[in-house]
Amino acid sequence: MRTRFAPSPTGFLHVGGLRTALYAYLLAKQSKDAFILRIEDTDQERSIPGAIENILHTLHWAGLHPDEGAIVRDGVMAQVGDRGPYIQSERLPLYRKYAEELVDIGAAYYAFDTKEELDQMRDEMTRDGIAAPRYDASVRMRMKNSLTLKKEEVTIRLEKGEPYVIRMKVEPNQLITFEDDIRGKLEFQGKTVDDQVLLKSDGFPTYHLAHVVDDHLMDIQIVIRGEEWLSSLPKHLLLFQYFGWKEPRYAHVPLLLNKDKSKLSKRQGDVAAEDYIKKGYLPEALLNFLALLGWNPGTTQELFSLQDLIDGFSLDRVQKGGAIFDTEKLDWLQGQWIRRFPPAEFAAKILPFVARKYPEANEDKKFDQKAALIQERITFCKEAPEMLSYFYKEPKFDLDLVANKKQKVAKELLPEIIDDQINRLASIPNDEWNVNKIKLILGFYDKTLNHLKLKRGQYLWPLRAILTGLPFSPGAFEVAAALGRETTLKRLEAARKAI
Ligand code: GLU
To answer: pTM for this one?
Structure first.
């Protein structure tokens, strides 16, 4: 199934847009067909510089690589496929040709109405109690267009270069029916559809014309797009009919909602995919999260890789109702995904973050061992430098932390505990310094951990707090093993002196 993602470059790519791209990508890949990227920039006033680059980079980050259109290669936009990149503003003559074709067969017409005349028309209709004034069959016959003006006058106006638009002709009495892949059977009355402008006076097509022409020319088999386009569907179906083209399948995906069920908006949180990238979410987590916003796998499985999604996704499990954008779920998925990486891959992912703060991490032969200590505890890669800080800088000795009330470690106990640990640990030769040996020596296996008649936590807390200087950290044995014999003893001795 050939699918496309057709964003308008009107700002940073929205998370809802990324979900639409994902669904379209999944359907294409399921059938080993092409996923196409088309930039719909026919509304020049709303187009924003940098937005195309942002769309490309976001898709690239997410691993949703288009097969036709454009991709990011070596950091810049490059064409893929032999027919791309598809940027609508570069295809203007094409749309004009098709709009004129519809005029020739009587399915569309030139309209010369000025802005003032249109405003007046709307005012009059409002005065007559019409709630949603539209340029429709009842209006068309009293306005200035090629259906009401004499043929010669139309020719003269066109030759003089008078501004005009081309509008599609919608017959009010017809019933337009359709079967949407998510919404099921749909029915629209012709009288509720206006004579949509297809070609604007600036020569640009409207979205309605351009996407129909392009979806036809690009052999798109199913259009995946947001629910907000549902009301425009009858226009699009009519256009396919007028051109004599077979329409694609359509699947209108549900809106994303805030927790209070209002439409997801900037006011209540971040909506640009970019915001989530900047915060450090993994593409795996964000895609997993977005896939489940509206799609229900029908099982209890919650973690889905891109490949799992390609294998399992189906439109008949996409709901009609809006999907709540619950970032707690996203955070949970982020935690799950970060723990799923094989240890070496995890270490490689966090290394750049740590090395930015502590460049010596790049040369650290024990970096993987250290990284492994935090994989179960971390949520975002950017937390790694802080979580591993004590490996690269001396922690400050903090008596309040070491003599911790919650752990029932009274200050008076510290000299005895630290001396005992120094003595025991110093007996381990350098080449036998490892987690097991440290556990053994400190009495972990033979209950003699209680040799000082202390609880396990009372005995181990100070060691961990002295070595890391942090209130939360991995266990004392693992930290000591990764720190090495010399540093461990040095820190213990310094602490002993400080109390
Ligand atoms: N350019 C439209 C948008 O910005 C695309 C809608 C569609 O996919 O047909 O959402």
So the answer is: 0.88
Mutate to test the pocket of ligand 1, among 225, 247, 252 (most ligand atoms within 8 A of CB): 225
Closest CA to 42 of 248, 202, 164: 202
Mutation choice for ligand 1 from 207, 227, 235, CB with most ligand atoms inside 8 A? 207
Phi-psi region of 129 (alpha: psi -120 to 50; beta: other; left: phi over 0): left
Distance CA(62)–CA(213), nearest Å, equals 29
pLDDT digits (tens, 9 = 90+) for 391-402: 999 999 999 999
**pLDDT for 436 beyond 80:** yes
Query: 234-259 burial by CB neighbour count: b if 16+ within 10 A, else e?
Result: bbbbbbeebbeeebbbbbbbbbbbbe
35-48 residue pLDDT tens = 999 999 999 889 89
What is each CA distance from 404 to 99, 442, 444, 477, in whole angstroms?
Answer: 78, 20, 21, 19
What is 88-144 written as a DSSP string?
Answer: GGGGHHHHHHHHHHHHHTTSEEEE---HHHHHHHHHHHHHTT-SS----HHHHTTSS
Estimate to the nearest angstrom the gap between the alpha carbon of 24 and the chain centroid. 14
Nearest to 474 by CA among 400, 354, 345, 371: 371
